[in-house]
Amino acid sequence: MDYALRKGLLVPKRRMLNPKRSWLPHAYIIVSRHRAFQPAHFPLAPQHTSVFGYIQGNFHENGAPSVNTCAVTLGAAIGTGQLACVSFGFANSTGVIDVVTCADDQGNSYTSSDSIFVGGGVGYQWNTFYKEGLSNGPQTVTGTSVNNPHSFMAIFVDVYSGVSISAAIDGHTGQFQSVNNGTDAVTSGPITTTINGDLVYGSCVCIDSQGISSAGTGFTIRQNNVDTSFSTEDLTQTTAGSIAATFTGVSPIARSYMTTVMAFKPSAPTTVLQVISNPQDDSWARTTMTAY
């Protein structure tokens, strides 16, 4: 007897010939148990996969001269579909937060996520940006302070694959702290993500130039310029929920830090197929596999 696949079940083909009720939409596949092994495939619910790749990173610092821009050139052009995370900071003694922008050499404008400012004797501003789904091969990224020139500008860029190419952001925040070097004491403050498997990216500057000794628990350091106190890190968050970027400082006494976190959704769900095999005897097996 010939069999057909209906909603994951093998049913006799003759039952499908009822003209009043069609049991065989065009997507279903007829198989026969009297023929050689024939697998039948149909899609199940899509599933997200969290396979992020760290591609590259680089930084540049301007030093003491007061200027409006700071640019960094990566070792290679950013690949199609990749994400660039940018941290851009400078001494700011004007007493007010400055307007900042970020763009690259291919005309892409980057989205601002957070700008943290502290005045007084500290006088510093730390800004983060991102751009997902890049497609035209940029290699140089520039941060700009719009209203005033500033000294000690620095820009850090980290590039990732495996992130959603649109509407990728899934939370961001940042804060200024004066803390010591306790484990995970330097923190962005928490965000609450909504998607399992997010890429969580943290960046930090120690305004007192004391530096970071290690990444937060579970994070991997990507760039860490201890001499000038800039650090970046990341992790993959398996289950959505509350999370913060954390670092451990170098100094045993309280120092001033600015720390930010950005979370990004993984790339679009993959299609999961269920395979129904119909061998020559009456037995049959069911397995699942994921198509990448």
Structure description:
The protein has 292 residues and is mostly beta strands. It is 0% helix and 53% strand. A hairpin with a 2-residue loop joins strand 1 and strand 2 (9-12). The chain is globular.
Short overview:
The protein is an all-beta fold and 292 residues long. 0% of the residues lie in helices and 53% in strands.
Mean pLDDT: 82
What is the overall number of helices? 0
Task: Summarize the helix and strand pattern as letters.
Answer: EEEEEEEEEEEEEEEEEEEEEEEE
Largest sheet: 5 strands, antiparallel
Radius of gyration: 26 Å
Determine the structural class based on helices, strands and strand pairing.
Answer: mainly beta
The number of E-state strands comes to 24
Helix content: under 10%
Order of the strands making up the biggest sheet: 5-12-7-10-9
User: What is the total domain count?
Assistant: 2
Shape: globular
In terms of per-residue confidence, which ranges show pLDDT below 50 for 5 or more consecutive residues? 1-37, 40-47, 270-279, 281-292
